[in-house]
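Quick one, T. Sequence first:
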Amino acid sequence: MGQAEYEAFKAKLREWMEAHPEEYAAFEESMNTRDMAGCQAVLLQAIALIPQYRKLAAAKANEGLFDHVNEIEQAAQDNDLARKLIGECEQPVAGSPVPAMLYWLYFGKSFERMVEYCEELRRSPDLGYFQKIAMSATIRLLIARSIKLGLRTREEWKAHREAMRLAESNQVLDWAMEESSDDRNDPKRKPGRRVALSDAPDSDQTVPRRTAGGIRPRNSHRPRTRHSGGIQPADRTAACRKIGPGSRSRSRRHS
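Structure tokens:
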């Protein structure tokens, strides 16, 4: 399939989606459930299109940590799988999951859900080492193939890995309470935010303090303290008022 045919194929998938939103929503919901009931339908469809699929998949699992599925891909070519799938998209059969499946694979969270499902199976205590090794190899193959096909990037997979780790951790509340980068860079601060002392302006903008008689007004301050000794500014003003202009003459008389 050339690039032009590939783009035309994706355009047809988008047209189908616009005409069948409810049908696609039902399929996506079946793939999002924990048991991935839709996965069974996809496997049955694969077996119907590639009769030897089950046998090839079992043989591949016996290889252990496999890093390719060349035999299955060759079988898909031998059975003209691409033409059959395109044909079902152009002339969909009632009840066929193929159009929804293809749209999900190309435009949905298909690789993420498959990796998550394999990871849950790998962690299940009901599985033995044979199945867990097969799940591990499948996860690696899914990620590598999605990157090779240009459907996902390595950065997107790193972000999804962090999301999975967060969901499994006990740090969700800490993460939820953190300020996002948008909040930190927003010039308009939210009302009621906590003001740091370093951010508080001088004099009348300082945070009011509570005293024994209630809250002291913002413009009320204690006299400044001079560590070198002497009369404080507020005390000096009061002393001048007590002495007055006639104080010097009175002192001379007494002398």
